Amino acid sequence: MLNKDKVKLGIAPIAWTNDDLPELGGENTFEQCVSEMALAGFTGSEVGNKYPKDPVELKKALDLRGIQICNAWFSSFLTTKPLQETVDEFIKHRDFLHAMGAKMIGVAEQGHSIQGMMDVPVLTQKPVFTEEEWEKLARGLEELAKLADEKGMLVSYHHHMGTGVQTLEEVDKLMEMTDPKLVHLLFDSGHFTFSGENPEEALRKHVNRVKHVHLKDVRKEVLDKVKAENLSFLQAVKAGAFTVPGDGMIDFEPLFKILHENNYEGWFVVEAEQDPAKANPLEYAMKARKYIAEKTGL
Predict the structure, then answer these.
(1) Does residue 84 sit within a domain?
(2) What CA–CA distance (Å, rounded) separates 233 from 236?
(3) pLDDT in tens, 255-272
(4) Residue 116 domain-assigned (yes or no)
(5) Beta strands 217-218 and 242-243, pairing class
(6) Taking Cα atoms as reference points, which of 212, 207, 211, 213 lies closest to residue 262?
(7) Residue 33: inside a domain
(8) E strands, the chain, where?
(9) Residue 237, SS3?
(10) Bridge partner residues of 185 (DSSP)
(11) Residues of the chain with pLDDT under 70
């Protein structure tokens, strides 16, 4: 059983409104989203496009519901743009999160990414970095981590489908190339599974670098369809590839056990992008909360 004092539970707004596919949940408001997060029993949230940009306004809305911001996605372009462009955007992002009391910044490299392209097959046409790009990514991430450290914050790298850091081999390479004191790992059970990796093996290998966890399950029948029809990442999401923990093909018990045995401290964030018209966000949030309570005691 995990320690409630060390591990907190959050949920991502992507189940209510999808920033990459605005038509999914376009009708759902920010207020509905955070109210239902609280109603389902979560105390943390990541940040979506509908969230107020003013920290004072956002904090007031979240305080009313007993929710805090724990992280927010940051898109880096270290492999394709001058370092300073990413640094300038990162500082703005960092300062907003710091104002919200967050300690974590989840960074995903978007240079050459196909994750937002509707018609590009995700499993066969993912980008592959050159050695020069790997070097730019590794050194750039260390620079961002130093900037985060100035505010007492951490950077964790978010491996993601459709990007240059998708497979376990690529995660291995990035972890080897970066300073473990600076660059941490955001472990995402769903993305490892989708990319054909064993999430348990990946977690066991890198658990000492993991500072943030995304709990995402995968529907096997949809993943099989993605492979058979060579679908894009966005097509996979629309088809229902992802779901909440306990509703798909992933066995989370070994993952929880590894995290417990290694004294994981930080957030578990349920991040399961689905079409809210097909998967009621509150219903699935409650389903996830119940499953996590049963398996972890949290």
Answers:
(1) yes
(2) 5
(3) 999 999 999 999 999 999
(4) yes
(5) antiparallel
(6) 207
(7) yes
(8) 7-11, 44-45, 68-69, 73-76, 104-109, 154-158, 183-188, 210-215, 217-218, 242-243, 266-270
(9) helix
(10) 157, 210
(11) none
pLDDT at residue 273, as a whole number: 94
Using CA atoms, how far apart are residues 203 and 80, in angstroms rounded to an integer?
Answer: 29
pLDDT for the residue 125: 98
Structure tokens at 48: 């979506």
Provide the b/e sequence for 81-97 (b: ≥16 CB within 10 Å): eeeeebeeebeebbebb
Residue 17 lies in a domain: yes
Please give the residue range of the domain that contains residue 72: 7-296
CB of 260 closer than 8 Å to CB of 2: yes
133, two tokens = 């790009």
| 285-290, long-range: CB < 8 A, 24+ apart | 285/11, 285/15, 285/36, 285/37, 285/40, 285/42, 285/244, 286/39, 286/40, 286/41, 287/244, 287/246, 287/247, 288/11, 288/40, 288/215, 288/244, 288/245, 288/246, 288/247, 289/9, 289/40, 289/41, 289/42
3-state helix, strand, coil in the chain (%, to 5): 45, 15, 40
Number of domains in the chain: 1
179: its two tokens: 């300073």
Residue 239 — φ and ψ, nearest 5°? -80, -10
Strands 104-109 and 154-158 turn out to be: parallel
